[in-house]
Amino acid sequence: MTGPDPREQFLEVLQRVWGYPAFRGEQAEIISTVAGGGDALVLMPTGGGKSLCYQVPALVREGTGVVVSPLIALMQDQVDALAALGVRAAFLNSTQDAEERRAVERAVRAGELDLLYLAPERLAVPGTAELLDSAPIALFAIDEAHCVAQWGHDFRPDYLGLSMLHERWPEVPRIALTATATAATRAEIVERLGLQDARQFVASFDRPNIAYRIEPKDQPLHQLLRLIREEHPGDAGIVYCLSRSSVERTAEALAAAGVDALPYHAGLDQATRRRNQARFLREDGVVIVATIAFGMGIDKPDVRFVAHLDLPKSVEGYYQETGRAGRDGLPATAWMAYGLADVVQQRRLIEQSEGTAAHRRNLTAHLDAMLALCETVECRRSRLLRYFGQSSVGEQGCGNCDTCLSPPEAWDGTVAAQKLLSTIVRLDRERDQRYGAGQHIDVLLGRETERVQRLGHDALATFGIGAELSELEWRGVVRQLLAQGVLAVRDEHGTLRLGDEAPAVLRGERPVMLRKDVARSARSRSAGRARPPADLAPQDAGLFEALRAWRAGVAREQNVPAYVVFADATLRGIAATRPATPDELAQISGIGAKKLETYGDAVLELVAASVTHS
Ligand code: ADP
Ligand code: ZN
Asked: For the chain: N or C, fewer Cβ within 10 A?
């Protein structure tokens, strides 16, 4: 072989353009494959670094790299981010007027673009294929490739047409990328895009920088505020709620408490939605409170926490939503508050849902997996990875989830379960009377409430036999028995009935192990703050804040998101090492040639000023 090792060329591009010292994971291997003309299918979690896998080959191969993406709203930011690196990029989508489109088309024909972003529907527009014929194409990147999966929730009919790429341009390498991990989706992508010969790269879906925590819901708003104030003051975050009304309520309450919080849901008019999303993406430290309508394409790297105030319907959904935290690799928190009412509500929604029994069974299976994750006494990360068919993190656990940091105790809840079930059996004998958890717990605790007396429930054999547990503990028992299928929800009022597993428990054939709910305060304190292992020293933190303020000004001036100027990680690197010369500055990860040229002087001045002041 002659000539330089191509891998050295890729590394040189990475260092010069992006200013990153090394490739991550399988990036180098993937880039090698595509740059060499081969097809690739890349499954990598959010934040794993998928973009570089097509951007680097597009720069080293002759011609324009064509990126198909459904995320039209993001294209401007993506192109701005590349421009800030000195990469020539543009997009074609429906948001442009004819004039703007023509300018881009001219640039394509003149071979002036390294990267061209296209909405999938543009490929079907007459003239687009001819336009692509007019200049050499370096590669096709199919981003969010799971959109081709017909049963998935992100399905885009236009993606089915992408099989034409290979037919029309058989010589051009294709790289399909997704963060959706399941094997079924992968098979569907291969099938529909004709990627049978593509090399497959399946990265670990572990997100070690995300701390997973799930705590019992007590006073959710209070708990959320505590999380924000104690662990994430001034940080950007996403709070997910199930309904529009709870989004509104939560956003208002946070704003009243001094948090820079904005609502986002499908019921808001489009202008408000767009404005709130833009503020979240562009400004530092905005908290967005949203339904799951807010999601795909939220490409903000510095989301420091994702909070769930309601139970997600599946582990897939939970992992996708929490995955929006910490894309930049810095510590982030995935926090959820979950309680009895959540289980009752979700079970009820399934009971009432339309569709076949098989469909309901499918929903139930997904919810059960989610509940099992909530109630586990094991490492949360191990469970998540196993769910996605990947090896777990080992016996000792991950050390960065709540169950690892303060292991919950398991306790034998068999007798408690039997007491509760007997109460339900007895109350069930009353015709036309059904009760929710509250009444059953009152009976178990022997409370002489007005209702108990009126109904004569103080005469039941189980009245007062549960005084060894508190009301909160009983609610925990009910919640976990619902999760385990020992209890079930009867109707739309959320009343309880025996579940399939109940007879075995009553007969003493099935022991019931439960998780002891840990008091909220103790848990959150011992789980620690979501900060990097080598935190900034106080004097460096001052410089970091000064750099952040400077970055906010630059971003506003140029009308780009803050991270397009510099990532948080880069600002941290500057604050911690205090470079004094352009050469020293260039050593920091995230400072490539173009950024050094554009911002080097300003940054060095800030560092010098802060040194003299400290
Ligand atoms: P994905 O598309 O897989 O969610 P991105 O491509 O947006 O992830 O990358 C996530 C973040 O990691 C970005 O800020 C990106 O610049 C950064 N990144 C990617 N690869 C590297 C690398 N080799 N070294 C340092 N940072 C990287
Ligand atoms: Zn763990």
From this structure: N
